[in-house]
Amino acid sequence: MENTKLDRSSIGTKYDITTDKLLVKYRQYAILFKAFLHKYLRYISSPSRQEAILKTFHYSLWLLSRVYSQIPAKDKQSRANTVQAIATLAGELSWTRYLLRFFGLPAALEGIESGSWGSSSKTLGKAMAWTMVFYYPLEHIAYLHWKAPTMQWIPSNTTVATMWNPFGRRSQPPTSTSAVGNATCTVTGRANNNSPAMSSSQIAAKASAWSCRFWLAYLILDIARAALELKKLSTRGNPNDNKKSKQNGNSQDTGHNENDDVSPTFVDPNLSLVRTERLQIVRSLLYVLPCIHWSLPNWDTKPWLSNDIVNGLCWVEAVVGMYQSIRNFQESC
């Protein structure tokens, strides 16, 4: 009986120890999860970071669909259905990003007032903001005509219809169903009755082309802004150099060897700014070719670049932007 009691007692002790270990592990994981959740909520609270996440998922899904379509498969129909499903999800994320642009115009108007977009150059910042003041409404027009083609968003009277003359040569509206909807909306009532009317999808394409031209101007100005900031940062000098020279002077005067003491490494705050501006230039350069492609008059019917090149450059830009966003967030914590 005593042996039995001892065995039961030892089993109970082992059980208690195991339970305590599990509770400790649970508390540790709970603390880690709580810390992660806190940082995650802080990260996604910024609209620009939300855009970075959506953009990365958007183009990553496109890349996944392209890679998956090249994998040999016995059931080609099943593979085609999977590729189509992934591409559909990527398209939905693209439209979500279009919707988020409806919140961008107020920030651009504020940028015109303050000039804060240009960092140290208010004039440059105001010019950048002005490009977005034209960019956002044109993007809204394109979105509405693509997603709701049966609505006549542009009035068909002669005065307003002639406003679309800068959008280039008009072609005959398609006789088949538009790719962006089950119906097409035709703008009629032009001053010249001999000129063909535009379908809703054509208006969207023209508006999108013009929005990308303003976006291209923004990219050029942003590259100039970043270059000016890098030049300004390079003239400030490195605080490490001053500190090192001071330490060398002290060691020569007193005969003290600087290797005898281990001091904390000085982190130059300019390094973070330099990295951010360099990454910004890389991102803008990656966007230049796709932006020119989308800015051409017939980009939708006679594309200059292939979809793989355009989306591939955008995917690389999204990855660089995500890296930049995460690094900046980590340093701000």
UniProtKB/TrEMBL annotation:
Superkingdom of source: Eukaryota
Positions of the UniProt region annotated as Disordered: 234-264
Listed name of the protein: Peroxisomal biogenesis factor 11 PEX11
Lineage of the species this protein comes from: Eukaryota, Sar, Stramenopiles, Ochrophyta, Bacillariophyta
